[in-house]
From TrEMBL:
Name the UniProt record assigns to this protein: Uncharacterized protein
Top-level lineage group: Bacteria
Record keywords: Membrane, Plasmid, Transmembrane, Transmembrane helix
Originating organism: Nitrosomonas stercoris
Membrane-crossing residue ranges in chain numbering: 64-82, 102-127
Length: 177
């Protein structure tokens, strides 16, 4: 026995297009798919998205070039204030060390800084900071949807599938959220 799909019927799927919570039009599934294909096949959008990813990398590096030295400096100050004997022992050991020991210590220090930087970037992503990332493919599809619905305003575009009345098999507009 087959399970019945709630959305299965022989009619094409129609989507309500909402902008900022207001219905601005309708679009068929085939039209929406064609808009997505056009956006994904547009070389200008792909190139712009590539440069956007490069910009994200530069923003991450820029943030790290400010944040990591700031944290290292204030960590050193905190160690000097709260544990001066440890700080003076560290300075004394560095003064007595030869070049190989200093290089080894710097290597370990740089590894710790790299872990700190990676942790900061991951924490930023988890906390919702997007480092100025823009999904240009989604923006292109939204622009085509606004043009299709003859809506010149910018806003939050959402698609919601139109419900079908099981008795009359007619499309009905769902109540707004």
């Amino acid at each position: 026995m087959k399970k019945a799909n709630l959305w299965s019927n022989d009619q094409p799927t129609i989507w309500n297009v909402y902008m900022n919570g207001v219905v601005i039009g309708k679009v068929s599934d085939a039209q929406y798919a064609a808009m997505q294909r056009m956006a994904f096949r547009d070389g200008r959008t792909a190139l712009a998205q590539f440069f956007n990813l490069g910009r994200v990398a530069f923003v991450v590096v820029e943030k790290l070039l400010v944040t990591v030295p700031f944290l290292v400096f204030w960590s050193a100050v905190a160690i000097a204030i709260f544990s001066p004997e440890s700080y003076t022992d560290l300075v004394r050991e560095l003064q007595k060390a030869d070049q190989a020991e200093i290089m080894s210590a710097m290597y370990l220090f740089l590894q710790a800084v790299l872990v700190l930087a990676l942790g900061l970037v991951c924490t930023g992503f988890v906390m919702g900071y997007h480092y100025e990332f823009r999904n240009l493919y989604s923006e292109a599809v939204n622009r085509m949807l606004r043009q299709h619905c003859k809506t010149p305003a910018n806003g939050d575009v959402q698609l919601r599938r139109m419900a079908t009345d099981p008795i009359s098999n007619q499309k009905v507009v769902p109540a707004p959220d």
